[in-house]
Write a structure and sequence with these properties.
alpha+beta; Aminopeptidase; 12 strands; about 50% helix
């Protein structure tokens, strides 16, 4: 019924132009325009009237939103895509679908958050009814923040001073994120298909301090306020002023639908996802993001789902979606994230080192050491290391991080010497060798991560 068409890299531009034609006819999902960004593959129905944009994680094809298709064709297009994926030995999942998809396709849906929506014609009433929002707008004006729309030709012109200023702002914004840079539906490419977008900059005395990229939601005659960026030094109210300008422009252009996109894990999600939200708070401010969007008093909060076949577990679908956002490797993504937020790593290292030190001090473990004074020396060393980590966790200092990194390097080297000279000859089976290897690798890994995180960490305020 359907055919899979993988286009060569040289034809990527032509393929996206073909997708754009379909988007202008059937682009209903809030995130539909994002599928034009690099990194997506496209599956086209053999009739040529529909497509699905997806990322191949190696185990699954994860689609960005629902199909780009007429409503009456959605079910058949999904079935064709599903069959093609199974033929390729892949699972399927659809990330950020809305209730319409669930009504048309017999898939299981897992709530993953909510997105706020507005009718921009009511925006004046929102501002009048929110004292805090009016105060933020007033503060921005008082500090000289001015917002203007950026012509599409500026964003399409490499080397243009304003585009370069936006690119620098984007670099600073990405560097300030707690997590490693993600892909899939959250890639940052404000110059892609600029002629189809709207863009606004916030300036103070001619210096760009904020930027907002707006993408169309064609089939809903709406806008998605996608990339909202601000410099750390931008005056209070800069982000609110950008949103205000976009809302007023949307109303002036007769739009009837505006969204700020997904607030992940907000709303009535499953208990295990609420647990993930709590555990992940040091790395991503879920509550803060929802509160920021809520301050604009949306007309409604619309639930978004991760949709997957009923015969495939939800856990697999979540895993596949995470891999799509992590650009394939969750391990690499996690390590880079830890290096950017080293306090989280230091907290984990300290929590592991304390029970390890207690175990070292127990008389029953004296056989691991050549003599009692060596055992006591290692215990004293680890107690000092724990103390240093606690100080570093309370207040990060590059010099202390360097010192602790060098101490853990010395720990790894001395442990290796002891292991070769004393423990290896006395090892009795896989359990003993496991302890020896862990004793050497653990401080070596800690040293490398402490020294690397010193260079890559994101300043915390």
């Amino acid at each position: 019924m359907a055919a899979l068409h993988h286009e060569a890299a040289r034809d990527a531009g032509d393929v996206r132009e073909r997708v754009l034609v379909l988007l202008k006819q059937h682009g209903w999902n809030a995130t539909s325009f994002q599928i034009l960004q690099p990194g997506f593959l496209y599956w086209f129905a053999e009739e040529g009237d529909a497509c699905i944009a997806y990322v191949d994680t190696g185990g699954a094809w994860v689609a960005g939103g629902g199909p780009i298709a007429a409503p009456e064709r959605v079910s058949a297009v999904v079935e064709g895509f599903h069959q093609a994926a199974r033929s390729a030995g892949r699972r399927v999942g659809f990330f950020a679908t809305e209730a319409r998809f669930s009504r048309l396709v017999p898939f299981q849906e897992l709530p993953i958050g909510e997105q706020p929506v507005w009718d921009p014609a009511k925006w004046d009433a929102v501002v009048r009814g929110s004292r805090s929002l009016r105060e933020q707008l007033r503060r921005a004006r008082a500090h000289g923040v001015r917002v203007r729309e950026v012509p599409a030709e500026v964003m399409e012109t490499p080397g243009h001073p304003l585009r370069e200023a936006v690119e620098v702002l984007a670099e600073h914004w990405l560097a300030s994120r707690r997590m490693a840079t993600m892909g899939f539906l959250v890639g940052l490419a404000p110059d892609a298909f600029a002629r189809e977008r709207r863009a606004f900059v916030a300036e103070v005395e001619g210096r760009v301090v904020g930027f907002l990229s707006v993408t169309p939601v064609y089939a809903r005659d709406g806008w998605f306020l996608q990339d909202l960026l601000r410099e750390r030094s931008a005056p209070n109210g800069t982000a609110e002023t950008l949103v205000d300008a976009a809302m007023r422009a949307a109303a002036a252009n007769g739009r009837r639908y505006v969204t700020l996109g997904l607030a992940p894990l907000a709303g009535p999600v499953r208990p295990w996802l609420r647990f993930a939200r709590a555990v992940g708070r040091p790395l991503f401010d879920f509550e803060g993001l929802r509160s920021f969007k809520a301050k604009f008093r949306p007309d409604a909060w619309v639930p978004l789902f991760l949709s997957h076949p009923k015969d495939e577990p939800a856990a697999w679908a979540v895993y596949d979606a995470l891999r799509a956002f992590a650009r394939g490797s969750l391990v690499r993504f996690g390590l880079v994230t830890l290096l950017r937020r080293p306090r989280f790593f230091v907290r984990t290292l300290t929590a592991l080192l304390i029970p390890w030190t207690v175990l070292l001090a127990l008389p029953m473990n004296a056989h691991w050491f050549p003599s009692p004074w060596v055992q006591h020396g290692w215990v004293a060393f680890d107690v000092g290391l724990v103390a240093g980590l606690l100080v570093l966790m309370r207040r990060w200092r590059d010099g202390l991080a360097t010192l602790l990194g060098r101490l853990t390097t010395a720990d790894a080297c001395l442990t290796l010497v002891q292991a070769l000279a004393y423990n290896a000859a006395r090892a009795r089976g896989p359990g003993d060798w496991g302890v020896i290897v862990a004793s050497v690798l653990a401080p070596a890994t800690a040293s490398a991560m402490l020294l690397r995180s010193r260079d890559l960490r994101v300043p915390e305020h």
